[in-house]
Amino acid sequence: MQVRGVVQGVGFRPFVYRIAGEEDLSGHIGNDTGGVTIEVEGLEASVERFLVRLRAEAPPLARIDSIAVQDLEPCGEEGFRIESSSVKGRVNTGIPPDAATCPECLRELFDPSDRRYRYPFLNCTNCGPRFSITRRIPYDRPQTSMTRFKMCAACQQEYDDPTNRRFHAQPNACWECGPHLMLVATDGTVIPAKDAVSETIELLLAGQVMAIKGIGGFHLSVDATNEDAVLKLRQRKRRFGKPLAVMVRNIEAARTLCVLSPDEEALLLTSARPIVLARARQQCGIAPSVAPGVPWLGIFLPYAPLQHLLFADERVYALVMTSANLSEEPIAIDNEEARVRLDRIADAFLVHDREILQRCDDSVAAIVDGAPQLIRRARGFVPLGVPLRLEAPPLLAVGGHLKNVFALAKDGVVYQSQHLGDLENITSLAFFNESLAHLMRTFDIEPDTVVHDMHPGYLSTSWAKKWAKEHGLQTIAVQHHHAHVAACMAEHQIDGPVIGIALDGTGYGTDGQIWGGEVFICGLEGFERFAQLEYVPMPGGEGAIREPWRMAFGHLHAAGIDLAHDAIRSRLGISEQEERLLKKMIERKVNSPLTSSCGRLFDAVAALVLGRREVDYEAQAAIELEGVAIDERDEDGYPMELAGDEKNSGQMIRIRAVAMWHAVLGDLKAGRGEAVIAARFHAGVADGFVRAALRAREAKGLNRVVLSGGCMHNRRLARLMRAKLEAEGFAMLQHRRVSPGDGGLSYGQAAVAAAMLMRKKN
Ligand code: ZN
Ligand code: ZN
Ligand code: FE
User: Fold this and answer.
1) pTM (2 decimals)?
2) Cα(740) to centroid of ligand 3, in Å?
3) pLDDT tens, position by position, 539-573
4) Spacing, Cα 594 to ligand 3 middle (Å)
5) Is the dihedral of CA 677, 682, 686, 688 positive or negative?
6) 253 in helix, strand or coil?
7) Looking at the DSSP assignment, which residues form a beta bridge with residue 380?
8) Staple partner for 347: which of 208, 602, 628, 696, CB 3.0–4.6 Å?
């Protein structure tokens, strides 16, 4: 039989060896190019039980996608053997993702009689680094950064013993033969310490900023209960508003910081150990500057032995653990690189001599509308493939501009890269190139098509065109929101036609304007724009993203509302001079593109209601608006009108916010609270789009709605959209495996291109 899925490098062969023995079956197992091949012979009932157990008892990191069974003549084989991992042909099962320390290893870590007592690099076939330490396939020790450590006799014996938990555990190591920690000062000299971990704890508790080498890169760490230390870190890292992730000892400690649902706890405990956004408790002891302005905390649990050792000290309650970089640059991985780049940020460095070969940030997830959703897909998930129903020719989709992730597709599977950050500088582009080369090698994919966004100004677009030209490949441009909706369709394995709703920040439209509040009638291959949020000017262009007051001005101007009314000017903090300037910009169409963006509508309302003039990170104002309404019950939505009549005149429907603005101003004047206004606004937006979907159903006879775009990270909006759509009898699909934001874009681009190429072929 052939087993497909994640079955290499996860302890699958020893597991099969064990159950074959228990069922008294003879035969053999070996890795092949697509997974593993098993031959067993014995009693029929035993073989049947074997097949059931294969699925039911598979090791924790294994994922079985399919088992193809074939009858063979018995050949009288004796005993069961594991064939060596040398493979004929190319392997395409690739490398497993990094996995958190398993319970057995954790027990050894704190067992004084164990030979790996307090060893910061212990692991086994059920846990440990994988993707981040692997240079190329097949995933075998010589291809990893463990190659320079020669196993001692004891480790080698475990590695060779099929009954041992460490059978073929590639990063297997111990005090005797494996990597070691070192404490290094900013000038590169080694700080003499009897125990680098204990010394690091003392420095952290003394309020120092530590750079700690982890699994996918360095973390910058401070005591999360020490406000001065957190502020020091923020100033040095030049990151002011964006919340910082906090690591705590275990799930009990997590409960003292956040109100956790069973789903959130399960998400925290998965072997990927993502950062989970959860509701923070009041007075949980975390310094206020960790997550200013929002009622959530991004928390996660230790996933490397070193992190468990830090938390073994009772005095360590919660640590800020944030990617070691300047904002949106790639995370640092190399000891010397870290020392140079973090010179002015960290007070000292806790490093080790096991090289990180693939940068990989922590993943970020949240429970959105009752199920997990990925916000940033990286460590613990990459390089797992996501299926695509279409078996398209090999292609590369380069993704977008912000929060870039590219994707390689082949044979009906899409492999997305780790989160690469904003493609705005040379270091990010270098990271892009390095990851691309690695994933192409890993999955043996030579693309013959390059897919990119329609935006002519994206660095990813110009890179794609240049690269395609150099390699003589064809290119396909995909509209941003079509890619968003297609990503959700492909994730749910549907082709359309559907009503696709993209509620997003910004994306380049086919008319050259900036889209982001769109209702499409679409399939994978193409789309028709059925409805949109009515265009408003975006005075200052990109600058209006950083300064939401400009967006508020654009909206109010479009709605014909005089700023002299109801103290609007003072709420937005606009001087008369600024007002004149912006008015002129809009009227003369100078740097004032039109936008139908839903995210920018959120920004505009947040600017007016919360007085948030400027933001430190994209969508900050919108996120704060979601935050203030967190405890508010569902309110009636503000009115959003539909203009245009698709049915009779073929005119596109426009969702207008004019009446909504008047209602917001009315509520502000009446002294209504921010929370109520925010809740009514969320409901109003949802109502507006649901009504547009109703029109689409009427006009096109479609009942299936697919939701995508960065605004779908907004939990309140996601929940309201589903509730309202289902109340109208729609069947509705949301993202689960791929991010609804720009992190999922390349997956959607791949789906669209695959559909186009398949049609051409047939
Ligand atoms: Zn383990
Ligand atoms: Zn050893
Ligand atoms: Fe987007």
Assistant:
1) 0.94
2) 8
3) 999 999 999 999 999 999 999 998 877 688 888 98
4) 16
5) positive
6) helix
7) none
8) 208
